[in-house]
User: Fold Acetyl-coenzyme A carboxylase carboxyl transferase subunit beta from Celeribacter baekdonensis B30.
Amino acid sequence: MNWISNYVRPKINSLFSKHDTPDNLWTKCPECNTMLFHRELADNLNVCTNCDHHMHITPRARFSALFDGGVFSEIKVPEPIEDPLKFRDQKRYPERMKAAQRSTGEKEAMLVAEGEMGRTPIVAAAQDFSFMAGSMGMYVGNAFIAGVERAIALKRPFVMFSAAGGARMQEGILSLMQMPRTTVAVEMLKEAGLPYIVVLTHPTTGGVTASYAMLGDVQIAEPNALICFAGPRVIEQTIREKLPEGFQRAEYLLDHGMLDRVTHRSQMKSELVTILRMLGQMTPAVAGDLPAPTPEVKPLEAAKAPEGAKPKTTPAKDAQK
Ligand SMILES: [Zn+2]
Assistant:
């Protein structure tokens, strides 16, 4: 009997059991309904290879593509009070949080990091639309401010990638208070003379649009991103009128003077580098891929480094004079 239970049964079970294939190998493009293979999609930075639709990208994936060699260090965010209103709809707020943490593998809806982008030191923050629609609560406010304070301490520009359904209703007035808090933080950057660049991604709406996402020195958006305070459906129902084609989309807003640029995700890094180096009066960026910055320089290399670095830095000093 032993061989039956030890050998035959597992064999039969393995034949009939479901194979361990992840069910998320394919993603359907919400715009053109094309089935896209996950690896191909990830290589294309979550932009549809068929219709060029810019899908959500997690902050982690974005930072990996943005920072040189995918190297960045996260900035610690002060913890806010948990569930201050003891909010409950169909589910309790802490349960919703736990579900979002499990599905995304992230702690909250914003990631803040520092690193180099095209050898340009920056501090960046990105909102995670897959985490409770990237909604702005106390943590997001704290994260934004932690990023700004770090940027000021390091004298670096601050780049914000926004994506949000608005304020987090489970935190009520406390989430709305993040609007003035973040606005004051943007003012702190201005006082320190540091550039604040906003990259608006699909969709950026509600209280986020009404605060830090619209206060950038340069406002860039990804193609066809919905950027609004109240959505087109709400407006249509209120004014009972048909809205023009492409209303509240990035290209429409660019035409009407609300944005400075609409940039494809694949071009975003080089464009940001160009803008930031111009604003920071640095030499133009080196074209092509750069190796990851080395965290520790060995004594031998350190001795060699100034020689190699000299020809690059001297023209900059001359140019500034
Ligand atoms: Zn598509």
The radius of gyration is 23 Å. The beta strands are 26-28, 35-37, 72-74, 110-117, 120-127, 158-164, 196-204, 218-221, 261-262.
